[in-house]
Design brief:
Length: 168
């Protein structure tokens, strides 16, 4: 019996080590041209219950746009948290929203931002639960919102494999 538990523990640890660094069963996607300079960014907020039910990505360049995004992002929370103070003369907010999903286990992430030529290229990574993964049985809507300080906050931004907001 003791050897059974030891074998189970070894298999568990081996599985954890093998899964380290993977993003689940969802393919990472094709390798995109990443030539350019990496741009640092700061996560403002990441979670699984955004007030957005459709998948989309956005760039926010003003206080008014950010207030609207923040209000919608937190429409399901009471009390709504205070938004961070940001200087849109110095940077932009980038948001990635996965849309409504049927269970937990899903995630979206701004995984890299590269300054390439005259634009920022934003790579988004998604994670989906595996078929045998135990997940929360509740609707979710994963999101990741980041702050990017730039010399030119009017720089063009291009998302790799992420829909823009409807109507934009």
């Amino acid at each position: 019996m003791k050897s059974f538990f030891v074998a189970a523990a070894v298999l568990f640890v081996a599985g954890c080590v093998a899964a380290d660094g993977q993003t689940g069963n969802a393919p990472r996607g094709e390798q995109h041209n990443r030539s350019g300079d990496a741009v640092e960014f700061e996560t403002l907020e990441r979670g699984s219950n955004a007030g957005y039910d459709e998948p989309w990505c956005t760039v926010v360049r003003s206080h008014e746009e950010f207030e609207a995004l923040w209000d919608r992002l937190h429409r399901r929370r009471t009390p709504k948290p205070q938004p961070p103070e940001l200087s849109f003369e110095e940077g932009v907010v980038i948001g990635a929203f996965m849309g409504r999903r049927p269970t937990g286990g899903y995630a979206i992430e701004v995984s890299s931002i590269v300054h390439s030529g005259d634009e920022l290229v934003v790579e988004i990574t998604r994670r989906e639960p595996g078929p045998d993964e135990i997940v929360t049985q509740a609707l979710t809507s994963p999101y990741h919102v980041v702050w990017v300080e730039l010399g030119d906050p009017e720089v063009a931004v291009r998302f790799l494999d992420c829909p823009k907001q409807p109507g934009s």
